[in-house]
Amino acid sequence: MHLLCVDDDTNFLDLTTTFLQRKLPAATIHTATRVHDARTLIETEPIACIVCDYEMPDQNGLEFLHAVRETHADLPFILFTGKGSEEIASEAISAGVTDYLQKRGPEQYDRLATRIRHAVAQYQTEHELRERVKELTAIQTISDLLTDSDGRLTGPIQQVVTYLPQSLQFPDAAVASLAIDETEFTSPEYEPPVHQLTVHDVTTAGNELALTIGYTTDTVAETDSDVFLPEERELITTILQLVTAYLDRRHVLSDLQEADRRLNLILENTTAVMYLKDTDGRYVFVNAEYERLFNIDSEEIVGQDDAAIHPPDMAETVHANDRRVLETGEPIEIEEQITVDGDERTYLSLKVPARDTASDIAGVFGVSTEITDHKKRERQLEALNKEIPRLLSAETVEEVAERGVVAAREILDLQANAIHLYDAENEELAPVAYTDDVLELIGEPPTFRDGESIAWRVFKDGTATAIDDIQTDADIYNSESPIRSELYLPLGEHGILMAGSPTPSDFDSQDVTIGELLAAHLRTALSQVTTEQALREREAELEAQNERLDQFASMVTHDLRNPLSVAAGNLELYQETGDNSHLETIDTALTRIQELITDLSTLARHGIPDENHEPVDVSEVAHDAWELIDTRSATLSTDPCTVTGDASQLTALFENLFRNAVGHGGADVTVRVGSLENGFYVEDTGKGIPPDERDTVFDHGYTTGYSGSGVGLTIVSRIAKAHNWDVTITDSNEGGARFEFRTSRSAETGN
């Protein structure tokens, strides 16, 4: 302990110090001969007791006592004086002196030492008691602050760091701070402390805490002991534990509140029906969806059983399922048919035993989810799978479309639906099949072209789409249409299936999903039919080519045999006789062979249509062909005319017609070529073709006997067919033959 001895008599002061050091060897004794110096020591040293003379030069002992009591009300103060009187003793006691002794001899120093021990012990005990009370008061106050908080974090924590400095040994110089992770709370007018004490803790949520107390001046540290009292160390540790517990409590409470909020959200907003029943089947709890579904308040249903609320059959089935859970103690998942507003719906119910705190079964908790639409989709999927063979058995795209429309109506319940197939030649989506409901709603379905409808947009995009209100779509085809919502199901390159309804938002994502499956089946069927049709056309084409090859082979075999025989026979005669007249016959036969080869080659070449047609000057081509044959003294006249076709094939056509005219009409025949509406004609002044032969003149091998091969007019027919021309035979004005070529109606319509 630290003692302060104050006496203006230095000799006596030394004597007192000497005796006290003997009697109190553990004490540190400070001395002062002036009151001013004594005051300085009191402020700078941890003085535990003052021993002071009465008579002092600048201030007597009692006046010094009054000054000490202003700042250190409980510090032990012993008046040790050589001048004693009852008056001084009475005044000293009234002034609050701790003890009073007179300087009477060496034995008094024993009494003084004893009085010092007692005074310091009592002072320290009282000080510790005050500090403990102070500590407990601070703990209680801060505990109350945290307990009485309104749930917000900032306010209570700030109050803690504001109050804490007031509970320390030197409150005027004390500061406090509390760091929670990266957030720091500080006491008012906080300054970085010169001396500080920090304790750490971690909450269960992982928040790191650091509570710091400190003093902002050095004056409290000029001592050989620790700046912070043990009580202060205990206090700061306890306070941080309170804060940690407060934060843990907040975290747990927050978790509970969040769990409660989420549970309420589920109970109030889930589309599943939830309920709790006791072991007698009486309702204990139902959620908002149950109330909404059966139009009943929770207060009305609690305490009731299913028999009091639902139809008998339904109540009996539900009760039997509940009893099964109660008896087995095992959860079940089962489909239940529930009647709602007279409508039977299918629910998938999960029922589990509800147990009390003793793990005894106290009832049944159930969650029922409606799967009516799901079951409907299952039935639709099964029906669609069964529909696949029927779609694939169709032989034409029209038949596929008809069956697809029926499937959409009967399986998907798309009452008003139609299938539009893409016509590549006309670049349009043409209606091929539709239900009667379509006719009732809009009449005959329209044909859609590029950029004029939602249907065309979806067809090009290729994505199945449901539109809630087509009246709001910029691509609507007919704004006067009674249809409001539509479902569009693209069929790939083949077209689109459309369904409509006068009700807005009548189609949802499920309709799109199940509709896409039907569309996939239709695409497969349409692709198969298209492929098979292409194969049939190819087979027919190959058959025609084979037929032409057969014709060619037969003509080569038959038509060339005779002139070859003639040439060979006359060659043999010439070799035997040397008669030059046989050479003329050989030359004629060889010429005939050359003509036959030309005719047969042309026939084989003109069996396939040429797609590269272009405008052709008929008059010019006719004159070119005229120059290629032996026209004898015949005459050709032409009128201006232009057609679309292949100039080479048209030349071959004129060659055969001109050769036929000269061959039948004689050396002086006149041949005319002129224009017709949608075509042209070729006529001559010869003998003409009898009406009863006009149907057969184009047949392969037909000949009138003018040395023709029977191939020329067949070539004419095939070239005309390759150009989509219809050929008509009639009489010219002079009775000769007249061939008229006109663009066929199928070519005009594009079919």
Brief characterization of the structure:
It is built from 21 helices and 27 strands. With 751 residues, it is α+β, with helices and mostly antiparallel strands.
Q: Can you tell me about this structure?
A:
By secondary structure, this protein is an alpha+beta fold. It folds into five domains: 2-129, Response regulator (Rossmann fold, 3-Layer(aba) Sandwich); 149-251, no CATH class; 270-370, Beta-Lactamase (2-Layer Sandwich), CATH 3.30.450.20; 376-534, Beta-Lactamase; 606-749, Heat Shock Protein 90 (2-Layer Sandwich), CATH 3.30.565.10. Helix 5 packs parallel to helix 7, helix 15 (509-559) packs antiparallel against helix 17 (581-605) and helix 18 crosses helix 19. The model has no long low-confidence stretch (mean pLDDT 84).
CATH topology of the largest domain: Beta-Lactamase
Mean pLDDT: 84
How large is the share of residues in beta strands? 15-25%
- What is the count of helical runs? 21
| Secondary-structure class | alpha+beta
Gap from first CA to last CA = 124 Å
- Structural shape: elongated
Q: Order of strands in the sheet with the most strands?
A: 17-16-15-20-19-18
Helix content: 40-55%
Outline the low-pLDDT stretches: none
Q: How can the largest sheet be summarized?
A: 6 strands, antiparallel
Look at the structure and give the CATH class of the largest domain.
Answer: Alpha Beta
Radius of gyration: 61 Å
How many strand units? 27
CATH architecture classification name of the largest domain? 2-Layer Sandwich
CATH superfamily of the largest domain: GAF domain
How many domains comprise the coordinates?
5
